[in-house]
Amino acid sequence: MPRLVMKRAQRKVGLAPGTLVHVGEKKIEKARIRIIDYNETQLEEKEAKTVEECFPFKDKPTITWINIDGVHDLEAVEKIGKHFDLHPLILEDIVNTQQRPKLEDFGNYIFVVLKMLYYDEEKNELEAEQVSLIFGSNFVISFQERVGHIFEPLRERIRKGKGRVRKSGADYLAYALIDSIVDNYFVILEQLGEVIEDTEQELATNPAQETLQSIRVFKKEIIFLRKSVWPLRELVNSLERGESSLINESTGIYLRDVFDHTIQIIDTVESYRDMLSGMLDVYLSSISNKMNEVMKVLTIFAAIFIPLTFIAGLYGMNFKFMPELEWYWGYFAALGFMAFVGISLVIYFRRKKWL
Amino acid sequence: MPRLVMKRAQRKVGLAPGTLVHVGEKKIEKARIRIIDYNETQLEEKEAKTVEECFPFKDKPTITWINIDGVHDLEAVEKIGKHFDLHPLILEDIVNTQQRPKLEDFGNYIFVVLKMLYYDEEKNELEAEQVSLIFGSNFVISFQERVGHIFEPLRERIRKGKGRVRKSGADYLAYALIDSIVDNYFVILEQLGEVIEDTEQELATNPAQETLQSIRVFKKEIIFLRKSVWPLRELVNSLERGESSLINESTGIYLRDVFDHTIQIIDTVESYRDMLSGMLDVYLSSISNKMNEVMKVLTIFAAIFIPLTFIAGLYGMNFKFMPELEWYWGYFAALGFMAFVGISLVIYFRRKKWL
Amino acid sequence: MPRLVMKRAQRKVGLAPGTLVHVGEKKIEKARIRIIDYNETQLEEKEAKTVEECFPFKDKPTITWINIDGVHDLEAVEKIGKHFDLHPLILEDIVNTQQRPKLEDFGNYIFVVLKMLYYDEEKNELEAEQVSLIFGSNFVISFQERVGHIFEPLRERIRKGKGRVRKSGADYLAYALIDSIVDNYFVILEQLGEVIEDTEQELATNPAQETLQSIRVFKKEIIFLRKSVWPLRELVNSLERGESSLINESTGIYLRDVFDHTIQIIDTVESYRDMLSGMLDVYLSSISNKMNEVMKVLTIFAAIFIPLTFIAGLYGMNFKFMPELEWYWGYFAALGFMAFVGISLVIYFRRKKWL
Amino acid sequence: MPRLVMKRAQRKVGLAPGTLVHVGEKKIEKARIRIIDYNETQLEEKEAKTVEECFPFKDKPTITWINIDGVHDLEAVEKIGKHFDLHPLILEDIVNTQQRPKLEDFGNYIFVVLKMLYYDEEKNELEAEQVSLIFGSNFVISFQERVGHIFEPLRERIRKGKGRVRKSGADYLAYALIDSIVDNYFVILEQLGEVIEDTEQELATNPAQETLQSIRVFKKEIIFLRKSVWPLRELVNSLERGESSLINESTGIYLRDVFDHTIQIIDTVESYRDMLSGMLDVYLSSISNKMNEVMKVLTIFAAIFIPLTFIAGLYGMNFKFMPELEWYWGYFAALGFMAFVGISLVIYFRRKKWL
Amino acid sequence: MPRLVMKRAQRKVGLAPGTLVHVGEKKIEKARIRIIDYNETQLEEKEAKTVEECFPFKDKPTITWINIDGVHDLEAVEKIGKHFDLHPLILEDIVNTQQRPKLEDFGNYIFVVLKMLYYDEEKNELEAEQVSLIFGSNFVISFQERVGHIFEPLRERIRKGKGRVRKSGADYLAYALIDSIVDNYFVILEQLGEVIEDTEQELATNPAQETLQSIRVFKKEIIFLRKSVWPLRELVNSLERGESSLINESTGIYLRDVFDHTIQIIDTVESYRDMLSGMLDVYLSSISNKMNEVMKVLTIFAAIFIPLTFIAGLYGMNFKFMPELEWYWGYFAALGFMAFVGISLVIYFRRKKWL
């Protein structure tokens, strides 16, 4: 599960602002750099071995998408930053994977931080990864923590020239990347939603200590989701308002579509939250209902035998003169009386709906 | 019940924006297209067999209302979209029935998404359907998921030329459609309100495990209602503010009336929510009161017999010299003493109000 | 109690907007129309038998207050509407008594909907009635559901020429009517507050199932009060901002005074709500404290007798060689020992503060 | 404790606005009027026997502070109102001591209502008093419900000419009065905070029914404090924004200081509220922990004796052929076995950490 | 732990505004004054013995950082205030360590109050200290309550000329000081987060009375953290908006970075709060689960022995004619029957999952 609690912050304290320190888990061994350069008619795709291979693309008029998987390679990040003239604080944010989603407009380029989410169905856990995008008039640079498959369909669309992407600018490519990430949230929500519904079903029928544990995990995941999704709304909205000259008007309507999606996602996350908020109560009431059931049956059990034992005790007294003891049928009469008392009590309890 | 949890989102991920994919349940077999074309003096009504039959109406000066039941017919939606020059993202929203209510103004036409609600009294469940409206200066196109009866009175009013509708433009027709849907919310709220009040009554008198289940269902329905109703407010408000040239000023006051209705609906939904929020507590306290009652009676029962059994045990001891045992009336004295102790305890417990 | 749940909405659905349908309880048999016409020097007061009697007053320069008790008389409402040139949607709102408080400015007249509250001390229930006001430059028309006494002191002030009312215009009269209603809220709050405080007192000392019932009723009443009072604030505020030419500046300061009162009322309602929110918890803890007390005493009771019964059981065993049984004082020694054990336990439990 | 519930509102209903009616407790017998008139060089101080003695000061260029203790003297209030040309609604607010803190700017004078708080350490109760201030260019009139000591240090500072007060205008004097009241809030918060902390300590160690009572009282006091303090913020802020020509710019910074203090006070009140909100839960869990402890020990107690009693019962059976009964050491063996069983159970329960 | 409850406020009440009174704990014996004076090429560092040593730096064009540890030295504070021409209210705020974080712009200098936090790992307690900054065009004066180590890395960076600090103005130095404090919050959050997570783990597995105590302490610490962090956001934001001419545009982007950090910190604090809010519930349910477990086992224990004791009691009756008693194998048959009943019950309870 993604961390709610910050880790390794201490490493950074006291350093000058702009100093690059990788904060987060190292998810792959070696950074992988992939370049796609295209316009409406041409397409060049290659995997760069060194960062320097990206540099010539900067000044080409074609759209260039540089994708770097693995942000722990501080040297690579720094070189790119220097070549593309990025502000040191941006680089610091890229390698510190505990950012919250945000957007910063630096005039000739825009910097966007997003959270990409995965749902590990085996561990029933949410996983998060930070994706940073920088886009200018003719380039998009994307940083991921590891090699993912979410951008694959987009890459395919570029290769095949499907849709608007080859005909549009870098802003549309940036939009398409953000859209891929946001679309993936729906998948996550669907998976999470199913697990929550299953758990809810289980809660009512068969509450167990583990269910409580699940609720706690869900609660943390919802907290995490909210932290990822709410700033997204603000982010996409400020892109859509189109204050930057980097964004064409025709892309605006697509960004509005993404904005609608983020609101839908927020709505769903809040629904899940509402659903969860009642689950602990249902769990506790289920548990206590079950317990009460047990206690009630046992108590009734005892309540039936206590008078019977008393009667038996009565005839166990050693008084000299106890007429009943002398009767020939006394013993059987006593047994019969006990049976009568016992059965009467059972009937009484049943009628009271206690049994 | 309408889904809080998203389904089938995965089918869509990775597709280019604007690709039509039907998301939702397929509620009728074949799409049904009905056309009403009218002005103050004329009226033409027909059921189209093919989408193409709608096309000629586009350029007629009369008001045309095209109603399509069944949004899963992607081809029909696409053809209409092309002919009426609608943005691909709109078409995508029409066929994806998991939209939240929203309004988008494209200048020469306005696109509105609404949720139409039904209350299935047999299953005690809320049902939802997505209605999309597109209206320009002389046409209204409405998309529904299935053939419904909510627009029937409006259709009748158009046929008979009652009210303002025949004298007004497409904006008034669009208003009338929205008004029909919003008015229907009152019916839903009334039905739901009655069921909630009944359940509340039941809660206090006869709490059962099923009542708890009902509360959970209500809670989800309220969550769903809020998701449908809150955006409605914003939607109607932005229509009413009259920023679009498509909306005549005289229609504005009618939209304000709808706006008042949506606020009233929101108020009522929030009241229901407040009522529900306390119901779980009442349920739990009812259950625990009942349980306590049982336990108390049983414990008192035991408490009366325990001393009696002790006395019986006393005279069951085998000591050689126990003077009472030799007495002729010993046994009856013991019985009497026991009766005295038992009755005293009953009186004592009664006086303490425990029994 | 006023309804939180909407009723009879179904009757209205599908009708053209502006169609008059009375929604609500019919509270009096026949509508009663009272007219007061005055200026600083003159006063004419009469009870009209037909609606038409009001009509001549419209064009008189004097201030006319037409008060109609009984909004179910649709014909009368419609006639007045036609004569005073009121918008059909206003008439619809007047006869539908489930409106929320609101204000609508139509330029040459202002329409205000308010809730008048009564506290039925016998049934301990809040009652609500809808009051609609329409005022122009020289007339005020007020609609009530039944004949009430709240406007009586105002009527008296007009008759006697006390205060500013005879010297001021229709706006001041409208203010005075609103002020009467708002002032009455204080009385309601005082009555309700006393009942809540009494209940709270009872809760701590003597919690009963009925108290729980009372809390639920209070909760609903508070929900209803909030629904009536919050929109009032907005309403009075927009009157006070003085955007309408119908309101003289000198009336503004009086409206500000009403505004202060509505805020005070809201404050008080919110305080009540806070007080109520904790009451269920106090109730539950009181109940469970009482229960625990009972259970504890009974359990201790059992705990004292259990060892005694064991000792008795011990000497009830039939072993051949049990030396104690042969002792002459054995029985009395056993009794003594039991007494010792019992008293020791009582002392022990007392010292532990369990008894 | 100050009332959350309104009282005596009924007396006022139906009166013309501006009619003076004293609402609140009469806290002193006779109104006391004290006048201080000063400028940088002169100082005149006197106690007026009649209201009329204040009148000459109105037209003097020096700063005059008229302090009236006792607002139930309606005649005095009315005379001052007439002489200083105050709006009748202001006078109404002064004598109705259930106002919420507010500020009204009448152009040539400003009217301020505040709540002065006392903490009665003996009764552990919060007491409130309404203070009304009216200040113009050269006078400040303050109304209090009774003779207090909070303004005494300020009076002393004026007499001795310490600080800025003698050199500044009426606005600074008004500021100094408000500052005295706000400063006093800190004292109240400190006292209240200590009592709350003590109670919290007690809760965890020794929960009693009275503690529950204290929590309820605190809760009401916090509700009251919030009602007094939140509007204060708005009030001081609108003074500080300096929109009135009556307030010199140099006083602005002092008002900002007061504003900071009110925010600090609000912060602290909210902290107290958060602390309180958990206290009921802690109380309930403490109570139930204690109860559970008792029940557990008693149940274990029973659980140990039940098997022993069974064994004794076994050898109390009257079968003809029970070999053990004939053994010489049978009785002692049985006693030993019982001891063994009892001790084993004790050890077992201890190991399970139940005992 | 820092105080939520105010202390020693009383000392201040009634004094003229601007009077210096030290409010707070005296954390070091003697104030310590350190001066660093630098520009891009020069550096002078010294520890001043008297306040007067600082004065000459005021008029030097170089950047001067005067750091005073120990605000209880009122005389020193006053002298500096007089020399640097600071407003008396600022001095009052510096020596009163119960300020909330705030910013005040006095035109030629800006005054900032912050809370520096420490986490005492031994006592598991949060400690707070007030830091006041005043910066003008060429000087920064910082006041701390005691000698801390948080500014040490910054001091080192100035000495070594690393980073931008030596090349920038007083605004950058002020930024760097604020940044040091904010960065340190991350460390605190990390430490606190770990302790909270540990406690949460413990809660589920081994709830104890002390855990409850910890939750209460955490809750207070979170309340305190929120009080320190939320105003920080506003503070940094108003610095960043760059309305003051004292702040260079190039520093703006660094302030935005600090702003992002404060939002991240707020996010994390709110996450912790959400986590905590559920912990008490989990604790209570853990406790009650454990208790229930014990009670259940014991009750079942009793339920098994009660019928057995009854059977034994049966054959302890003294009836003359009880055929079973005469049977040779009667005793053993009875024992066998008891064993059968006991084992059956155990199996039954196991099957019901009660055992």
Structural account:
5 copies of one chain form a homopentamer. Chain A is an alpha+beta fold and 355 residues long. Chain A is rod-shaped. Chain A is built from 8 helices and 7 strands. Chains D and E meet through helix 3, helix 4 and helix 6 of D and helix 2, helix 5, helix 6, helix 7 and helix 8 of E.
What's the layout of helices and strands?
Five copies of one chain form a homopentamer.
Chain A: E1 32-38, E2 43-48, E3 63-69, H1 74-83, H2 88-95, E4 102-105, E5 110-120, E6 125-135, E7 139-144, H3 152-160, H4 170-205, H5 209-240, H6 249-314, H7 323-326, H8 330-351
Parallel strand pairs in A: 3-7
Antiparallel strand pairs in A: 1-2, 1-3, 4-5, 5-6, 6-7
- Neighbour order of strands in the largest sheet of chain A: 2-1-3-7-6-5-4
* Main pleated sheet of chain A: 7 strands, mixed
The helix fraction of chain A, in percent, is 40-55%
Question: What's the Cα radius of gyration of chain A?
Answer: 34 Å
Terminal-residue CA separation of chain A: 46 Å
Oligomer: homopentamer
User: Which spans of chain A have pLDDT < 50 for at least 5 consecutive residues?
Assistant: none
Q: How many β strands of chain A by DSSP?
A: 7
**Shape verdict of chain A:** rod-shaped
Distinct helical segment count of chain A: 8
Task: Estimate what percentage of residues of chain A fall within beta strands.
Answer: 5-15%
